[in-house]
Amino acid sequence: MSPHQVNNDQQQEQKQGSSAGGGGISSKAPLGYGGLGGLGKSPKHWLMGDEAFEARMPHHDGVQALWETKWKFPCSKSLYPFHDGLYADFAPSFDALIKANHNDMTSPAWTTTFLSTGVAEQLVEQGDKLVAELNNIKPPGCLQPEQQQQQQQQRRRQLREQASSLYLRACCLYRIARFPYITSFPKVNDQTKWDAWEKQKEIYSKAGQLWEESPVEEVKVAFLDRQTQQGEGQWIPVYVRVPPAGTSSQPSTGSGYPTVILMTGLDGYRPDNTVRCNEFLARGWAVVVVEIPGTADCPADPADPESPDRLWESLLQWMGTYQYRGKRTFDMKRVMVWGLSAGGYYAVRIAHTHSHRLAGVVAQGAGVHYFYDKKWMEKVDGHEYPAQLTPAFAMKHGYSSVDEFKAGVQKKFSLLENGILAKPSTRLLLVNGTQDGLMPIEDSMVLLEYGSPKEARFFTGALHMGYPLANSAVYPWMESVMASIRE
């Protein structure tokens, strides 16, 4: 059986979401399965199937189609991209967008429609009132009856949880308002959306300070090797969260916590990963959340393929010295990276460029070579992304037009073309759905052909990033990697 083929037992495992562990798949596998072109050439047939590749999904027919065929259901279930939000918060905005026939998600009109309903402001105001009540509760005194102290503690906990929930709902509204993409390099691409982004961060900070045991700390890390002639910024903004004091994962030697660097994607940034961060904290791991070049607050030049190498070097140097509450925070022997979607590209790259500094890397939904293929680019705007993808990715990579992007991006940014994939890597888990219409599954498979042996978990029939079953593979794998590192 070919190393890329899946037998019936393995297909059943994929349906159940069991994890791929340990051994991995050999990087000596032959090229050519499923029509893959040799040496990275365009596939004759994409593995998602010709029909799916050629199809234009109905949600691209306008905002009403987007809402009714793609977004209404996840919104009703508080699923991505509506995680932390509620259906009732969004229905007025989508009703207004449909009535006004505002079909361009990239327009300021899209953003102002969400802001003009006043729902976000009302949620923040309600949260502020609860925080004011919280602050008015006096600390328990030694003369108070024990039952009264317990009641006060319970009330404080309730107020924190309720206020946090309200703030996060407001953040979700600001998130969708600034969709699908923002950048500040070399300048802010849309001031209206940028204002919504700044508001999202402001409110998220309010929520994060209510998480007493593991609050959100925003740190500005010095970008030590920035190229000022390229206009790169001085600071790398990151969010840091550490497990509660006394967590068993922190050795008595004070070497710090096992840590995950979470690299965000094209449209989801630092304030959009609360649940994932909570999963890390529950395992006793610290987390550093950082944005990738060409998105949000990242200071690195997105047009320079090597800027992430300098970015991550500065980040890792800072992590080696950072102290939280007077103690060393990060165990630098137990640092892992998880790159999400567009962040998967940078996860694959750092797995090779900084292999000796990392215990392991997860690249989920990564596009590293075939994503940049001209044939893929001609069809990707009709696939599963809610908006057109190529304009955002053109700007994200520093191109002034989509045509320039399509013509030059593969030669410049492909990790196969520039030799990165031929280098040794740290342990690297590749995760995606076989029907991914954004980052083709071929991009995960090509990594099996080059460099060090890799580990992979592909979900048959699943779309981008392999959801909803992907996390059932990722967390156990990360746990095994963390446990394998000796003192």
Automatic annotation (TrEMBL):
Provide the Gene Ontology terms for cellular component. mitochondrial inner membrane
Please list the GO biological process terms of this entry: lipid homeostasis; phosphatidic acid biosynthetic process
Q: Where is this region: Disordered?
A: 1-26
Name the domain of life: Eukaryota
Any one GO molecular function term: lysophosphatidic acid acyltransferase activity
Recorded hits in PANTHER family, A to Z, give: CONIDIAL PIGMENT BIOSYNTHESIS PROTEIN AYG1 (AFU_ORTHOLOGUE AFUA_2G17550) (PTHR22946:SF12), DIENELACTONE HYDROLASE DOMAIN-CONTAINING PROTEIN-RELATED (PTHR22946)
What's the protein name?
A: Pigment biosynthesis protein Ayg1
Name the lineage. Eukaryota, Fungi, Dikarya, Ascomycota, Pezizomycotina
